[in-house]
# Entry
Amino acid sequence: MIDMKKILKKIINKKILATWTGGLDSTALVYLLIKEYNCTVIPYFINRGQRNYMKEKEAILYYSDKIKREYKDKLENLREIIVDIPPKFFKEKFRGNIHIFDLRNSDILNQGLRLAACEEIAFITTGSNVGDTFKDNSKAFYKIKNKESRTAIPEKNILIVAPFLELNWGKDEMVKWASENDFDLSDSWSCWHDNEKQCGECPPCMRRKEAYVKYDLEDKTQYLK
# Structure
């Protein structure tokens, strides 16, 4: 059993809404919630117009089947929400401007908050970790986001939890834990592109590769390079 931080004790045995992109972080998170915290997980996936949509969706469906075979009643069917993030206006008018992706994580969480309110779920989890660089993936951001949630939807008292941040984990700790628990993450999809294999060169691919190096673990992911 991993170290139970105070805030993480709140989610033990609870029904949880989990953001799932099909990537290494969110896939490890779904399995962690079920195996370590005995949560019942309701996964939600944002179809936001990303070019690697099909690869992300395929990864989610693959791991959904895999996890359900082991924990039949702990993973509910995927909720897929279609919403452009960022909206087409920004993609067309400001293409190439990095700021069109500002607060993307906040936009994704807003959909989760609506879903949690509608489905009467008290907790939302996200795969944010210590290696994330965007400011809306930080502990400081989630503190403010939770205050916003309690102010905007006070009757629901929904709490957003970032387990990997609470555990002080980066990707390297995720792949170590997954390896120790015989959970192969090689079929998760991190790459920005939608090639037959992951490119091996974009920033998410590079961070993925680096994660396996620290603990000298075999990376079974298929890369083009």
